[in-house]
Specification:
Length: about 425
């Protein structure tokens, strides 16, 4: 098991460049299977979730190669198989997008249930509801989902989601883009990567409108053609570096961001005392004095993202006074990291969906375990801010979603190294 070793207590200074968005990449790469011809997808982060997804696509018969500048070229012309390798599918969460992709392309699919970060129960009933509304006959077991056209064939439909789900919105959009007729998704999720996926599909010839609002309309087309597309910057990676500077202090220019996507995070950090300067595609953060306490409730976009819960928690742990952090998307998410932060000296009481955090003057280095991607990133921030040495075990979780994290933090002056095995 690899680990990060961090000598904390150094402020961060310099410039960091944000990579392409993980959650957009893991939707757009499989969606390239809907396209006849070659897709060139730029700014694809080199992270383990993307590497697994590319292996899944190759296993189905697609040609997929990464170029040096981060562009991934996919040609899915010869894909005939609608059953991706279960051993790979089970290694990541977003492999459930193969269900929508294969249904859209072949009208059938046999996909194992996804794995990935298990910080909460993560049902897929809304995905299944969507596929059934599109005319699929769906068989769901404890191991896989299998689909083929029902008696009336596949067709567009109106689907109202019972919960606002990123995954279900993406999966239905993907399938419906190649299924005849008009599909309307009501109560759709609005995250930036949903808009990015719609822009990708439209660039390839799809007809999707309303992405980024709660009603998305899709007119199914017969075919999509190859083209070039650039993925947006990663909102959560950028938020993680901003939170790291807020927690450790320093002065950092975070480049390649869309400031509008960041405002739910930067407004909170500013409220806590960080100085934030927005530019066209960069944000400068300066932080010298101790942060103030705050109240944060995670919400779907444009609210404060659940994927930043653990990182802002570290800022609150070090802030003066008592902060309140409420999780409204995944109730059990605190359990992935709070006990680890307590080992470093944090004072966090969890009551139901809310963590009551009494700020401490400093954290002390300790050996801690990364139980999932964002929990692991938060422990890295805690280690950077702490006095003494911190070891973050199981760092492979972090590498699912952060490209060259060690290198980027070292570029900001952090003392962090990766120890193999
Ligand atoms: C996506 C993100 C993940 C982020 C999450 C919430 C990707 C690849 N992952 O995950 O990083 O933490 O959004 O912003 O983009 N739900 C159901 N039934 C369903 C689907 C979801 O009840 O069929 C519930 C979930 O339990 C959760 C809520 O809806 O409480 C939101 O989940 P969802 O938006 O679907 O998350 P993911 O797409 O899995």
């Amino acid at each position: 098991m690899s680990r990060y070793v961090i000598q904390g207590g150094r402020p961060l200074n310099g410039t960091v460049t944000i990579s392409g968005a993980k959650n957009a990449a893991v939707a757009i790469l499989p969606a390239a299977l809907l396209v006849d011809g070659v897709c060139r997808i730029e700014h694809v982060p080199d992270i383990s979730d993307v590497r697994i997804m590319l292996d899944i696509l190759r296993g189905l018969g697609a040609l997929a190669r990464r170029e040096e500048d981060g562009t991934v070229v996919i040609d899915a012309t010869n894909v005939r198989d609608a059953s991706p390798d279960p051993a790979l599918v089970e290694q990541m969460r977003a492999s459930y997008y193969l269900m929508g992709v294969l249904l859209g392309r072949f009208g059938r699919a046999h996909v194992a249930l996804p794995g990935g970060c298990n910080f909460a129960s993560r049902p897929i009933d809304q995905h299944i509801k969507g596929f059934a509304a599109l005319g699929a006959e769906v068989e769901e077991t404890e191991e896989y989902v299998q689909m083929h056209p029902g008696p009336s064939g596949l067709h567009g439909n109106r689907i109202s989601l019972d919960v606002v789900s990123v995954g279900a919105t993406v999966n239905i959009m993907i399938a419906a883009s190649r299924i005849p007729g008009q599909t309307i998704i009501e109560n759709a999720a609005k995250e930036p990567h949903i808009v990015d996926l719609a822009n990708f599909l439209n660039t390839m010839g799809a007809r999707i409108s309303g992405a980024g609002t709660d009603t998305v309309k899709i007119w199914g087309v017969q075919s999509l053609r190859g083209n070039t597309y650039a993925i947006i910057p990663d909102q959560i990676e950028a938020g993680t570096y901003l939170a790291a500077v807020a927690a450790t202090g320093g002065n950092v220019l975070v480049k390649n961001v869309i400031p509008k996507h960041m405002s739910c995070i930067t407004s909170k950090l500013a409220e806590m005392g960080a100085e934030i300067l927005n530019y066209d595609d960069a944000i400068r953060i300066r932080c010298g004095a101790r942060l103030h306490h705050a109240t944060v409730k995670t919400r779907v976009y444009p609210g404060f993202p659940t994927d930043m819960q653990a990182q802002i928690c570290v800022c609150m742990v070090l802030a003066s006074g008592v902060s309140r952090l409420t999780e409204s998307v995944y109730e059990t998410r605190f359990f992935g990291y709070v006990s680890e932060l307590e080992r470093m000296g944090a004072d966090v009481q969890i009551t139901g969906k809310t963590a009551i955090i009494t700020g401490v003057e400093a954290l002390a280095g300790a050996t801690v375990d990364a139980h999932d991607l964002r929990a692991g990133a938060a422990l890295v921030i805690a280690g950077l801010a702490a006095q003494g040495s911190t070891i973050v075990k199981d760092c492979h979780y972090i590498e699912r979603g952060y490209e060259r994290l060690v290198e980027k933090f070292r570029g900001l002056g952090a003392d962090i190294r990766r120890i193999e095995g």
